[in-house]
Amino acid sequence: MKPVKAIKINKNMKVSELVENMKEAGFGAGKITEASRIMKKMFNDKECKVFLGVAGAMVPAGMKEVIIDLLNDTDIFVTTGANLTHDLIEALGEKHYQGEDMEDSELHKKGLDRIYNVYMKNKVYVTLEKFFELNFSEFQKCSNIRELLWKIGELCPGNGILKTCWKKKIPIFCPALADSGIGLMIWGRIAAGKKINIDAFDDMKEIIDFAWTSKKNGIIYIGGGTPKNFIQQSLQFSKGADYGIQITTDRAEPGGSSGAPLKEGISWGKMKEKAEFVDIFCDATIALPLILAAIR
Amino acid sequence: MKPVKAIKINKNMKVSELVENMKEAGFGAGKITEASRIMKKMFNDKECKVFLGVAGAMVPAGMKEVIIDLLNDTDIFVTTGANLTHDLIEALGEKHYQGEDMEDSELHKKGLDRIYNVYMKNKVYVTLEKFFELNFSEFQKCSNIRELLWKIGELCPGNGILKTCWKKKIPIFCPALADSGIGLMIWGRIAAGKKINIDAFDDMKEIIDFAWTSKKNGIIYIGGGTPKNFIQQSLQFSKGADYGIQITTDRAEPGGSSGAPLKEGISWGKMKEKAEFVDIFCDATIALPLILAAIR
Amino acid sequence: MKPVKAIKINKNMKVSELVENMKEAGFGAGKITEASRIMKKMFNDKECKVFLGVAGAMVPAGMKEVIIDLLNDTDIFVTTGANLTHDLIEALGEKHYQGEDMEDSELHKKGLDRIYNVYMKNKVYVTLEKFFELNFSEFQKCSNIRELLWKIGELCPGNGILKTCWKKKIPIFCPALADSGIGLMIWGRIAAGKKINIDAFDDMKEIIDFAWTSKKNGIIYIGGGTPKNFIQQSLQFSKGADYGIQITTDRAEPGGSSGAPLKEGISWGKMKEKAEFVDIFCDATIALPLILAAIR
Amino acid sequence: MKPVKAIKINKNMKVSELVENMKEAGFGAGKITEASRIMKKMFNDKECKVFLGVAGAMVPAGMKEVIIDLLNDTDIFVTTGANLTHDLIEALGEKHYQGEDMEDSELHKKGLDRIYNVYMKNKVYVTLEKFFELNFSEFQKCSNIRELLWKIGELCPGNGILKTCWKKKIPIFCPALADSGIGLMIWGRIAAGKKINIDAFDDMKEIIDFAWTSKKNGIIYIGGGTPKNFIQQSLQFSKGADYGIQITTDRAEPGGSSGAPLKEGISWGKMKEKAEFVDIFCDATIALPLILAAIR
Questions:
Q1: Which of A11, A196, A257, B46 has the most CB atoms in a 10 Å sphere around its CB?
Q2: What is the C-alpha separation between B110 and B262, in angstroms, rounded?
Q3: Do C85 and C179 meet the contact criterion of CB atoms below 8 Å apart?
Q4: How far apart are CA A219 and CA A39, in angstroms?
C-alpha cells in the first residue's frame, strides 16, 4: 500500500506531467497513468505483437489521427466496417461536421445523418458509389476481407487509416464488413449483376497464426463489439495476452463481451494470469488522447 | 398531459396487470408498458415485417426460450455468432451454469469459462468439434451464412434457436459469424485442409429485399452491436421502420451505434418520423421477459 | 454449480411465477429472484429491523404506493427531502404529469418543471406556501427533523408516505431536509421573521440506537445518496447488516457511495461477512415493483 | 456547422495544446474543450458568482489539490460531509492508500475501509475523536453548519479544503453534515452528554441571498447529490445560472437529480435559456484535471 498523493495542476504543464501526477491518485485517474505505462511497455517490448481493436464511431469523432498514431506500434488491426467507411469517406474528400443540436426530423429534411453530436451529409453515399464503381474490377481480384481492405487503402486518393494500413502492411480484419457502408457498396454492385467472391472465414487463419507464432501478445480495445471479440477468440486458442488496455463505458452486468472486464478473460485463457492490464471506464475520445499523448 | 398514477401491487397479480399498472407511471416503468403495447401492435399488424436483432450473451443467461417465443412473430432474425454458438452448445446437450462467485484464475484451473455470473465448461469445444467434424460435408454445400446456419439448425440434435429458425424458415443473419465459436470450428476444418466457400456479402441481398418489399417494418433490438446495425442499414436504403423497441444499457455519449437512441435513426431515414418507438434502459434479462409476458 | 434453466413465458402468468422462473437464469434476471427471496426473508425475520433508504424522484415517477407498501415491513425510513416534498405536493391535492416530450424552454414558458419524463406545475409552490403558512405554529413546536416530518404527515390532508409514516409511527430521517422544497418553505417563514429551531444532529441518536439495539438488520436501498449513506454509517458503528438489497444504476468506478456495491460495506463493518445480499443494476421503477409483486 | 478536425498528438505537448486540439472533435472530446472555455469565461466574468458543488469521494481519490485550486475562483462551495471528513482526516495527518485488490472480508480483518480502489485505516476515527474531544468547546459556540465548518477549518492543524475555505472566507455549505464522519463525531459528544445547537435550516438564507444579489451565476457540479441540488434550488428562487459545467457518470433515465442533464434546469428556471453550459460524461478524476490544467 502506498499513500494517495493529490494531483496538482501546474501552469503550462505538459500532458506527460499531468499523467505522471495522476499516478498516485485513486479511481480513474490512477488508471490513466497505469494505461500509459502498460501501453509504453507493450510498444517497447520487442517480443510482443500488438493487437488493436477499435469499435465505435471513432473517425467521425475526430480520432482518425490518434488511431493512425497508434498504428505506428500496431501489428494487427481489427475494427468495424463503420469506422473504415467513415475513414474512406474522409479519404474521398468528404467531411464530418460539428454543429448545433438539431431535431432528427429536421436533419432528415436537410439530408444530414446524425452520429450523436456529429453530422454527415447523406450525399457522401454518392461519392462512395463512384469510388466503388470506378474501382470494382480491382476489388474483384480480392478473395478475403483483409485483401479487399488493403486494396481500398491502396486505391483511395486521400490519407487515413486504410491508406496507412496498406502502406505499412498492417493486416486489417473486419469480420462484419458486410455490416457497413462499404458492405452496402459491394451489395450495390452485386445487385447490378457484378460478381465478387470474398470468403467469410478466410481471414481467421492469419489472425490466429499471428497469435500462435508471437512470443507475447498485447491488446488494446477501444470499445468492445466484434473487434474485441475477434481478437479475444484468436488469443483463446493460442496463448493469452501479456498486456491489456480496455477503454469502454459499457456495463458488465448485462453480460455482453463489450462490457466484460479484461480479467474475465483469465478464466477463458484469453488473458494470462500474470498479465499487466487495466480497464478504463471512459469515453475513448477523452481517455485515449490523454493516455497516448503522455508517452509520445 | 395526463396525471401520473401510482403503480399498485396486488396480491397474486398477473404480469399483464403489473405492466398495465405501470402505464401511467414515469421514468422506465411507463416505458415498459409502452414497449408491450408497441410489441403487440407490430405483431398484430399483418402488413408489418418484424426484424429481431439480438446481441449480448442471451443464451447463457437463460433467455433462449424467450427468444424462441419471440421468433413466433419474427420475420427476420439477426444475432451474434456467440449467441448461436451457445445455442448450439445447448442443442448438443451441454449446459451453462450458475454458481458461486469465483476468482478467474481459479476458474481457469477448473476449466470453466466465465460470462459475468454464468459459467461454461471449456470442454464444450470438444463436443462442438465432433459435431462439425461429423457434419462438415453437409456444411460444405452451403454458400452463404444464412444457408449454413439453417443447415446447422437442421442437423443439430436438440431444440433451440437454430432448430426453430430452420423449422420455421426464419432467415438468420449473422454477418460476423467468423467471430464466434462456430467460426472457430469452421477455421479448424480449413486449417486441417478442408474447403468451404461461404460468401461474406451474399446475405445482404436477402435482408435488403425484405426491407424493400415489406409494407411496414418493425424492429426489436436486444443490445446493439452488429445485429442492430445490420438491420438499421437494411432499413436505411429501403424505408424506415414504423415500430421500434430497443433494450440496452449502453450510453449514447461515446457515440457508438449500440448506445444510440432510436430517434437518431430518423435523421438517417432508418426510422420513420411518425414511427411508434421506445428505448428501454434496462438489462434485457429483466425487461424482456416482463414486456413479453404481459402480452402472451 | 447448478445448470442455467431458461426463463419460460406462459399465458397469463403471475408475477410470482415469472420471478420464480427467473431463478435459474443468469445476469440480472436471477438477481431479481434473489432480491425477492432476501426481501421476503428479512420481512419475515422477527429479529430483524428493516432500514429502507429511498433516493431519486420516486414519487413523481408513480412509485408512491410501492413505497407505502414497503413501509408495511419497514422499521426505519430514510429518504430525500425531494421525495417528501413531492409526496406532500400530492397529499395537498396537486399532481405530477406524463406528457409529450417538450423543449425545456417551452416548458419554462408554460410553468412546467421537468423531472426526466414527468412534469409538475410550478404553481404547486403556492399550494405548499399556503400549507406551511397555515401550520407553521405547529411546526415551531418540533425540535428535530423526524418530529417535523411526522407533524407534516399528521397535518397534511391527503394520504401518502408522510401520512403513513406518521400513522404507523415509522421514524423518517432526512438529514438534508434543508435541501428540498420543504426546506425552502421553512426558509420562507424564517425570511419573513418567524422562528423555528430544528437541530441538525438530533436525529442521529435515534437511528444509531435502532442499529445498536436490534438483533439483526436488513437494508433496502433504492438509489444511493444521503439515504443510503445515513443508514450505512449507523450500521458501521453498531453492527453490520444481515440482509441487503440495493437497486441502482450508478457506476462503481467513480468511487461515490451511491454506486458502491454492497460488498464494499464488508470492509467497513457495515455489512456482515455472512450477510445475504444482492445488487440490482436496474431502474428502480422497473425492478422494485417486480421484486415486491412476487412476494405479495 | 464546422468540419470535425482530428485530434493530433504531438511530442511533449502541453495539456492546453491537447485540449485546444480536441476543440473540433466530436463526442466527449469537444465537450472537454467547451468545459475549459466556459470555466475560464465564468472565472473571468467579474459579475459572476461561482457556485462549486462537489459530491463523490474526491479527497480519497487524490483530488484535494484540484479542488483547492478551483476554490481560488469559487464564491460558494457546497459539498458532502464525506468529502469534508476525508479532508479533515488528511489535515490531521492521516492518509488514504492505493493498493492491491483485496477481498473485503480480508480488508475488514486488517482494519482497512475500502472506497472503490482506495483504502483508509479504520483507526483514523480515533484521531478524529481526539480532535473533536479537544476542540468541542469551540464548536459549541457555532450555531449553523457553515460556522462549524469554518471553525473546524480554523482549528485543524494541517492544510486542505476546510483550511482553505476558512482562510479565504469562502462559505462552505453541507446540508447533510449529520450524514458523515464529522456528524458521527458530533453525535459521539452528544451521546456523552455534551450540548451543541446547530440549526438545520439556518444556512439557507446565506446561499439564497448570494444567488439573489449576484448579477450572474456560474455553476460547476462534480457529481450530483445534495451539493448539486442545494445549489439548484437556491438558483430556482432567485435567477437561473448563466454558465454551467456538470461532470457526472450518472444516468438520466432513472430520473434522479444527480443524473439530470443541465438543460432540464431550464424548465425550472434554474438555468437561463441563453446560458452557456456543457454536460461531461466522465469520471471526474480524469476530466476535471484535464479541464482545469488547460486554463491554468
A1: A257
A2: 43
A3: no
A4: 9
Round to whole Å and give the CA distance between D156 and A241. Answer: 49
Enter the ipTM.
0.97
Spatial separation of the C-alpha atoms in residues A86 and A96, rounded to whole Å? 9
Residue of A nearest to C102 (CA): A103
The grid cell for B220 is 426489436
The verdict on a CB contact (< 8 Å) between A27 and C251 is no
Which of the 8 DSSP states describes residue B14? B
CB of D82 closer than 8 Å to CB of D57: yes
Interchain proximity C60–B18, CB inside 8 Å: no
Would you say D176 and D81 are in contact if contact means Cβ atoms under 8 Å apart? yes
Residues of B in contact with C281 (CB under 8 A): 249, 283
* Sheet with B97-98: strands ordered across: B112-115, B118-121, B97-98, C2-3
Q: Which of D31, D64, D163, D270 is catalytic?
A: D270
Whether residue A264 and residue B104 make contact (CB cut-off 8 A), yes or no, is yes
**DSSP label of D258:** G
Dig out the grid coordinates for B87 from the structure: 445455442
Short-list A220, A183, A204, A205, CA closest to A81: A183
pLDDT, residue C71, reads 98
The three-state secondary structure class of A244 is: strand
Top residue of C283, C291, C295 to mutate, by most chain B CBs within 10 Å, is C283
Contacts of A217 (CB under 8 A, 6+ apart): A48, A49, A51, A211, A235, A238, A239, A240, A241, A242, A243
Rounded average pLDDT over B68-88: 98
Residue carrying C-alpha cell 456495491? C261
pTM: 0.97
- Distance CA(C118)–CA(C113), nearest Å, equals 8
Per-residue model confidence as pLDDT tens digits over A208-223: 999 999 999 999 999 9
Listed residue (B241, B238, B261) closest to B38, CA to CA: B241
Determine the Cα–Cα distance for residues D243 and B118; give it in Å rounded to an integer: 47
Out of A26, A251, A253, the one facing C255 most closely (by C-beta) is A26
Evaluate whether C240 touches C271 at the Cβ level (below 8 Å). yes
Chains touching chain C through at least 3 C-beta pairs below 8 angstroms are: A, B, D
Which residues of A sit within 8 Å Cβ distance of C? 26-28, 251, 253-255, 281
Contact flag D108-C266 (C-beta cutoff 8 Å): yes
Q: Give me the phi and psi of A278, to 5 degrees please.
A: -150, 140
- E-strand ranges in chain B read 2-3, 48-54, 76-79, 97-98, 112-115, 118-121, 172-173, 216-222, 241-248, 271-281
Interatomic CA distance for residues C85 and A183, integer angstroms: 55
Maximum Cα–Cα distance across chain B: 68
- Answer whether residue D99 shows pLDDT above 90: no
Q: Rg of the Cα trace of chain B?
A: 20
Alpha-carbon separation of residue A146 from A228, B54, B198 (angstroms): 17, 27, 16
CB contacts < 8 A (A, C): 19
Summarised one tens digit per residue, pLDDT across range D109-159 is 999 999 999 999 999 999 999 999 999 999 999 999 999 999 999 999 999
Cβ-based contacts of A286 with chain C (< 8 Å): none
In three-state secondary structure terms, D56 is: coil
Interior/surface letters B134-144, b for 16+ CB within 10 angstroms, e for the rest: eebeebbebeb
Cell numbers describing residue A56: 465505435
| The pLDDT of residue C237 | 80
pLDDT above 90 for B224? yes
- pLDDT level of residue B101 (50, 70, 90 thresholds): confident
Burial of A162 (0-12, 13-18, 19+ CB in 10 A): buried
| Model confidence at D265: pLDDT above 90 | yes
